[in-house]
Structures are given as C-alpha cells and as structure tokens.
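Workshop exercise sheet. Pairs work together: one partner reads the sequence aloud, the other fills in the structure field after running the prediction. Swap roles for the next sheet.
Pair: D.N. / O.F.
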Amino acid sequence: MYQKIKYLILGAGPSGLTLAHTLLDLGIAREELLVLEANEEPGGLCRSTVVDGSPLDIGGGHFLDIRKREVLDFLFRFMPPEEWNSHDRVAKIILRDQEIDHPLEANLWQLTKEDQVKYLESIAQTGSVRGEKMPKSFIQWVRWKLGERIADDYMLPYNQKIWSMDLNLLGTYWLYKLPDVSFHEILKSCLEGKAFGALPAHGTFLYPKKYGYGEVWKRMGKALGDRLFTNTKVTKIDLPNKIINDTYQAEHIITSIPWTLWLKIASSLPETICESIKKLVHISIDVDYQKENLSTPAHWIYEPREEISYHRILVRSNFCPGSQGYWTECNGARSPQAQGFRHHNEYAYPVNTLDKPKAIATILDWGQGNNIYGLGRWGKWEHMNSDIAVAEAIAIAKQIVLATR
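Structure field:
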C-alpha cells in the first residue's frame, strides 16, 4: 500500500516552502500535503552555513528585496522585522582598475572626463538611440542597447564569464530585467555628477542581524513539522500512477527540482517532453570563501576582467555584522583548484537559451494537463530572486487550490 498524498511538493527551497505554507493558509489539511527535500536542511540555494565563525550563503549572494509587501508580511511570520537589518544597496563594477557604481551606464560620471566623452559618443551611436530595430542576437542586442564600449569593457566579458558559452546561444527575451537607463538620463548623470534612472533590484534590501539568509527558510521548514521530510532524495517517479520513491501516491505533484533530473528518475515520459527537457541548459557555480578584508563600501562587486576567474564578490563584512572576509562566485567550468572553503552548486543558474521559452512552455503545459506543476527557479527554469519566488509560489498555491477543489 502506498501513502496517499493530495499535494506532494518536491523540493524545500523558498518556492516549495512558501507553497506548502500557503496551502495550509488556504485551509488544506496538514495530512493532505508533504514536502520532500534531498538535503539535510531546507532552503535550497538560499541555505547558509557557518564559515570562519560567521554565516556564509552557500548559494551565492541572497538578499531580501523590500518592494513586495505581501512577501515581507509572509516571511515576517517566521522571522520578524526586528531580526533584520536594512541596507541601502552598494554594488560596484571593476572597470579600468577602479570601482564604479552599478549600473555602469548610470554612473559613467565617476570616470574621468575623457572616458566619459568616449562612452557617451559610443552610446549616442547605438541602434537603440538611433531608432533602429532591436536585434535578436544577444551580442548584437548588447551593442544595440549600450554601445560598443560598454559592451566590450563590461557586459560581454562579464556575461562570458558567468555563462562560459557562446553568447549567441542566449536569447534576448530576459533582458528586460536589466536596469533601463535612457541616453537622456546617462547624459544628465554625467553633467550633474550623480546617478539618474530607476533603481535596480535590491535598491534597499534586508539581511538577518545574527544569521545568514538561510535562517528564515530553516524556520519555515521547522514550522512544517512532520510534513517536511529532509534527507529524502527523489529517486523514482512512476508517472502513470504518480507514485514517488515507491512510497507516496500523489493526486497533484508540485515540482521545484530541476526538470533535467526527471529524465533519470521518471518513467513513461512522453518523447516530446524528453526532447524539450534536453533543450534546457544550466550552469554550476562554485562559492569560495576568502578571509581577507576588502577596503570597499560595496555589498557586492561585479568583476568582468577575463584574467580573474570569478565574476562576483560578496563582501560579507559589509552586510553580516561581526564577520570578516568575503566570498566569490565562479562558473564551475572555469574554477581554479579550491584553496579553502568551497561549496559547489551543480544547479545554480538556469540559462536563457534561444529555445528555452518554447521548451519550458511545452513541459509546463504537459505537466498541468497531468496535475504536475512546475514551481520556482527550476520548475519554471527561470532565474528569480527569492522575493519573486515567494510571490509566485503564493499565487500558484491559490491557483492550484482553486483548480482542485
């Protein structure tokens, strides 16, 4: 006999945890849901550990954006406001051997007058300023939007380091997430010596006073009690009968684990779905701790120089009280040999390839027709900050309950 579960949630990252609690909030009985998590602790990429006496976020840099009131109210139930510090975002870019505020196009005024003129001339000649049609190629889009100089000095080398692949395999449909600073605002910032334009994500963010970012998710997991099973890796999915690990029979499966794993563990996957899953690409990231203190006000720093292996620095001592040192993020394909603490995230970033939208749409449509729902970064195969993951999980929980009652 199998244990029958109405809502079986695969993965206890921010999305899975939020969905489980929201189902309970909507009146679903506790015995009707179960969450399975492969790791010892919940939290997914937002987990933390203690390194050199202070917290380190093993999935890289994670912070709580303050702009979604619904998300804050939800998370404050588990970790109240008084346990968080508020920070005004300080993000830097290494350019010409100096730290420039991010986004670069809004802060060219921090360069020498000679360099400002060169960048402005380049931007003035872009296709976006001249009204030319937006290209579909990623590399051409960057040049069309930002100009040759920003493309060659920052955007293209930085993205090459992150993805470590042919950048023309990337789509442009996701670039709306980049800060959008107009030429008028760029010129005004150079003339007036200050940034103009909309603040990017995490303009103001929260980070725990005494813990790493993983603490709030750990508490959410604890609040689920016996409805969360950790150290429980999904190794077998009998699709026709919705039986997981020969133990649980589900009415509805909500998956936040990578679809590419389904190729190995799920039986009877339709060939069209197998082919769509094979088109999904991800990269791994190594997080390395360095104990030296950096003389910078930045919370994080983007590093486009090709000779430096990592692409981002998280300056722990500037947002985690009582800590020292920093950690780096580096694509696993280009990481040097580890010299100290390293955490390897095999599944770190889904890649926005040209054919991803069609592939993931095919998978999600098939899934929904079979009471299988994709959720979060890996269920939707989309990079999303934790506040977005929480907001989407709340919304999806409501949709699922409405559709299944």
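Discussion prompt: The CA atoms of residues 289 and 327 lie 4 Å apart. What would you look at next?
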